[in-house]
């Protein structure tokens, strides 16, 4: 058996209509998985890029949105990618910007993992890949709820691995560096900021969604069966500096 094949597995990718989530959905599909692309808007463009698969609507403004989906059919792989960011000085940061980001990026991620685990634990097999961030390790600036949520994602990834690895589940995370998506358009359009970022990246370039997607295939495949509770930096070396 090819240790990197996802043939015969079904995967759910959240926030799959664009960016990193779209690239992960396409890569998992190319690796042989039957992919369910979940979005709060239709994932038509992603479906057009995949081999087979289908789309479902999930809006994690309700952190319990995925409560029932894992009981309807067997899903072997969960990629928690959906995320938002709000920027304001910490001294001015609003409660709404705190709650909105924590609900989508942290609370929904945990309860989606919990719903997945309740279905997967009795089967003794399952893979979860959470999308963390460099701000799972660093403080950042003007993004307090995002930093709190992404630090939480790293911690919860380890906690869930501790609890569920003995029963055959792998729970890991990927910490993307600076990736070319909608999330970073403003940064890339500011020549001084973009140059400063590239100058600090040993690989000397922005990351591409495909860079994250290939790592997600690895962490979803049998090749990573002995990796538990890891947060894998896919950042061109940013954290090594
Ligand atoms: P993106 O293009 O803005 O994609 C974010 C995805 O999350 C979109 O599909 C978005 O859907 C979805 N989403 C947002 N709120 C949602 C909700 N309430 N319910 C369901 N889906 C929701 O940004 P991206 O860069 O690909 O981000 C993907 C993940 O990578 C995020 O968790 C982000 O924090 C993380 N990340 C990105 C970078 C980077 O440099 N780009 C670095 C570190 C971590 P809509 O299109 O409908 O808004």
C-alpha termini separation = 38 Å
The fold-level CATH name is: Rossmann fold
Let me know the CATH homologous superfamily.
Answer: NAD(P)-binding Rossmann-like Domain
Order of helices and strands: EHEHEHEHEHEHHHE
Total helices: the number is 8
Q: Walk across the major sheet and give the strand order.
A: 3-2-1-4-5-6-7
Largest sheet: 7 strands, parallel
Helix content: 25-40%
Strand content: 15-25%
Structure description:
The chain is of the alpha/beta class and 241 residues long. It has a single domain, classed as Rossmann fold, CATH 3.40.50.720. It is 39% helix and 15% strand. The chain has a seven-stranded parallel beta sheet, with helices on both faces. α1 crosses α8. It binds NADP nicotinamide-adenine-dinucleotide phosphate. NADP nicotinamide-adenine-dinucleotide phosphate (NAP) binds next to α1.
Provide keyphrases for this structure.
241 residues; alpha/beta; Rossmann fold; seven-stranded parallel β-sheet; 7 strands; globular; binds NADP nicotinamide-adenine-dinucleotide phosphate
């Amino acid at each position: 058996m090819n240790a990197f094949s996802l043939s015969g597995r079904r995967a759910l990718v959240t926030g799959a209509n664009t960016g990193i989530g779209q690239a992960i959905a396409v890569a998992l599909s190319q690796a042989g998985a039957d992919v369910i692309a979940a979005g709060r808007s239709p994932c038509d463009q992603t479906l057009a890029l995949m081999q087979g698969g289908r789309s479902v609507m999930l809006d994690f403004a309700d952190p319990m949105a995925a409560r029932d989906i894992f009981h309807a059919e067997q899903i072997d792989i969960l990629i928690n990618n959906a995320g938002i960011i709000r920027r304001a000085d910490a001294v001015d940061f609003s409660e709404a910007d705190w709650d909105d980001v924590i609900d989508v990026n942290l609370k929904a991620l945990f309860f989606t993992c919990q719903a997945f685990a309740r279905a997967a634990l009795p089967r003794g097999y399952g893979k979860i890949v959470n999308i963390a961030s460099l701000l799972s390790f660093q403080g950042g600036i003007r993004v307090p709820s995002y930093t709190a949520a992404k630090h939480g994602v790293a911690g919860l990834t380890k906690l869930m691995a501790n609890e569920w690895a003995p029963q055959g589940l792998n729970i890991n995370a990927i910490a993307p560096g600076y990736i070319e998506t909608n999330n970073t358009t403003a940064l890339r359009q500011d020549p001084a900021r973009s140059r400063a970022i590239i100058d600090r990246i040993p690989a000397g370039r922005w990351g591409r969604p495909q860079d994250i997607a290939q790592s997600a295939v690895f962490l979803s495949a049998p090749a990573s069966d002995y990796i538990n509770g890891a947060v894998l930096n896919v950042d061109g070396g940013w954290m090594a500096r």
